[in-house]
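About this split. The held-out portion is used to measure sequence recovery: a designer receives only the C-alpha cells and must propose an amino acid at every position. Recovery is the fraction of positions where the proposal matches the reference. Here is one held-out target exactly as it appears in the evaluation file.
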C-alpha cells in the first residue's frame, strides 16, 4: 500500500523542503508506520523468522529429537568454571 500524496503533501507546506524531500519524507514515515502495524499484527518478517527458530531449540538436542532411545530426563546445566 502506498500513501496518498495529495492528502499528505499539503501538510508539509509550512516546511522549507523541496517537493522531492517532502515525497521522500512521506514515504519514509509511511514505511515506519507500516512496520509498527505489521509488528502489532504479528506479520513482521522478524517475527516470522523468530517463530521458526523457536520451534527448534538448537541448544538442547534432547528437546528436538524424538527417539525412544533418548532419555527424556532433563540434565542439569554444567557448573560455571567446572570441567566438562
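Reference sequence for scoring:
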Amino acid at each position: 500500500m502506498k500513501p496518498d500524496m495529495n492528502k499528505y503533501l499539503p501538510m508539509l507546506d509550512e516546511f522549507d523542503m523541496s517537493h522531492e524531500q517532502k515525497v521522500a519524507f512521506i514515504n519514509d514515515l509511511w514505511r515506519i508506520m507500516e512496520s509498527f502495524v505489521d509488528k502489532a499484527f504479528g506479520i513482521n518478517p522478524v517475527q516470522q523468522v523468530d517463530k521458526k527458530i523457536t520451534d527448534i531449540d538448537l541448544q538442547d538436542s534432547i528437546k528436538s529429537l524424538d527417539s525412544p532411545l533418548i532419555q527424556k530426563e532433563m540434565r542439569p546445566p554444567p557448573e560455571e568454571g567446572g570441567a566438562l
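Annotator remark: The chain has four helices and no strands.
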